[in-house]
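Collaboration report, partner site 2.

Our partner group contributed sequences for two proteins of shared interest, and the home lab folded both. The records are reproduced in the order in which they were received, starting with the first partner submission.
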Amino acid sequence: MSWEWQALCSASGKPGTSSHEAGGAIYQLAETAEQQQEVISFWRQQFEEKGAYLRGRPEEATNRHSFVYCARMENRIIAACRMTRKTESGWEVSDGLPDAIAQQIENNFSANDFLQLNRVSVESGYRKLNIHQSLFLYCALWLRMHTCYTGYFAVCQPALIKLYKGLGANVLTPRPFPIAGRGERHYYLIAGHVSEAIERLCTVVGNRFCRAEDIR
């Protein structure tokens, strides 16, 4: 486990393995290099279907400053997401942003309190099974128990706005914007709080891990 990864965890919590089973899937933090490489392979397969966006991206380096959470079924990854902290070079999404959006992110998201949610992907055959809701729930619970981060933000395509609003996130840009190097795609900036995501998802998922102490 790298020192960068350990440094993300609060002193009050231990960064040990977190694994939960629900609906036939196992949700877990990808801790080891082998686990994270498996997630990267999953991302590349998923995103290659939509274009060559990930080709040449430094995913391994970014993972060293991130929490990577995934869902497994039948011993293979079917969904994953990543929560990335700000580094000296900026946020993961910093390259290619319009100046006004980059400044908005800089002004509103403290590196001590916020993480950037990115690389959200669910295998197409599982997208109607609410896998993403359980993935976000367990990831948020882990963050709540083991880190000091309280908020998240993301840039997302218009089709995902409804998904993030379901977590309690707010849309911060009135119009979509392009990101250099991502072709014709346009994005919105959204942001939310870990505690509200947990509260909303506990209502939807109805899971035994959603205790009063989890959502206070």
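Second partner submission, folded after the first:
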Amino acid sequence: MSTRRLLHALAHELHYRPLPQLVGRQVVIEGFAELTALARELLEEPGAALTRPDDAAHFTAVLGKYGLIDLAATLPREGPPAPTPPRENLRVWSEAGWLERAEDDELELALAVGQGLEEALAELRSGVTYGRLFLHTERLFEGLREWRAWTRSGATLPAGYLPRAFTIADACVTNYAGIWQWKHFYW
């Protein structure tokens, strides 16, 4: 697919509704087991099914290394959220790090990340709706060396680490679970 056609399709197929009323809100997390209930409450969707983090080990590793929870849940809705205007969608793609401005001020696919956008287009058309929440707290470790030592020793959170307050940094309902892949990048 040509770049122009791909941009056109991405602009028209994305459904993205930010949830600014959740951003900045503090929530207390007691552990992995309660994340589904938290997603259902915050997204006001009793049938939400957690897809990320997908297990307690992933939850613990990301929390230990970065002090964050990157939460995604499928929402049992008929179709995606209400459509957003194509120009607004291009802004969303750009702010999320998927697009960049070229020298001639035309939007182009960012060369470093444009590889996955055809797969993204297939997901946009799949009919699945996601709720996304990005939460953060203090990091458990300051440096990579400490984190590596922690992972080699069993990667369990220290006693008393949870429950802990987290701040919601971003929240949305969308038809593309990976929309924040570059906006909130971590490895």
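Feedback sent to the partner group on the second submission included the following. The CA atoms of residues 48 and 89 lie 24 Å apart. The first helix runs from residue 3 to 13.
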